[in-house]
Amino acid sequence: MFGLLKLLKFFGIIPGAMAAYWVRKLYQKHRQNIAMSGWPATDATIQSGQVHKEGRHCWVELTYTYFVGEYRMGKHVHRFRKEEDADEFVRQIKDKRVQVHYNASNPDKSVILDRDIEVVVLLTPQYR
């Protein structure tokens, strides 16, 4: 969080917000790459999703739970171009099961791969 504030101070509000957005995106990709290189997987259930919009950027913050010795909670961010797409995504994904990868030495650290989320959405029937 402190690093994001430094970016805002150094670059200014608009460029700083854009830099913070890309830093968050790169960090999530880095965590996913680590998870793919050997973290075990288990099932998670999507509990909720909250749509956020900042300027032209829109994203959903998902909250999920999974069980490794005890119930644990994690968050996943998924980005969208349009707010209505984000709203539809939340409607489709809530209460669905998805694979989560967790750090075997610290099971509170977990990550959902973007591709696993996309598979769940593709397999969800489209009811309107």
Question: What are the key terms here?
Answer:
alpha+beta, 5 strands, 128 residues
Walk me through the topology.
Blueprint: H1 2-11, H2 13-36, E1 41-54, E2 57-67, E3 71-80, H3 83-93, E4 97-103, E5 106-111, H4 114-123
Antiparallel strand pairs: 1-2, 1-4, 2-3, 4-5
Helix pairs in contact: 1-2
What can you see in these coordinates?
The protein is globular. Strands 3-2-1-4-5 form a 5-stranded antiparallel sheet. The mean pLDDT is 80. It has 4 helices and 5 strands; from the N terminus they run ααβββαββα. It has helices at 2-11, 13-36, 83-93, 114-123, and strands at residues 41-54, 57-67, 71-80, 97-103, 106-111. The chain has 128 residues and is α+β, with helices and mostly antiparallel strands. α1 (2-11) runs antiparallel to α2 (13-36). The protein starts with a helix and ends in a 5-residue tail after the last helix. Helices cover 43% and strands 38% of the residues. β1 (41-54) and β2 form a beta hairpin. The longest helix is centred in the N-terminal third of the chain and has 24 residues, at 13-36.
